[in-house]
Design brief:
3 strands
Length: 89
């Protein structure tokens, strides 16, 4: 778990334990990981419980959402600027 950013480590460990124990929790989670040279990257983890060699296990798909987050921030900024212009009128 050295790749998981410290602020998300407890969150992902707790979720994994809940999912393995059979609790119904959302399948998607956004956390941050630490990439090369301490570059922090937001990721989305989609996971589901499965059985692997007779034991409960988690199947996870991990997506880099850095570009999506950048575009969301740009959109939020543009919306705020638009709202400010509308209020000026």
């Amino acid at each position: 778990m050295e790749l998981v950013h410290p602020e998300g480590l407890d969150k992902i460990l707790d979720r994994n334990q809940m999912r393995i124990s059979g609790k119904d929790i959302p399948h998607r989670l956004e956390i941050k990981i630490i990439h090369k040279q301490d570059h922090i990257v937001p990721i989305e983890v989609s996971e589901s419980k499965t059985i692997w060699q007779g034991q409960p296990a988690l199947l996870a798909i991990i997506r880099n959402i850095e570009e999506r987050k950048r575009l969301e921030a740009m959109l939020a900024k543009a919306n705020a600027e638009l709202e400010a212009r509308i209020e000026e009128r």
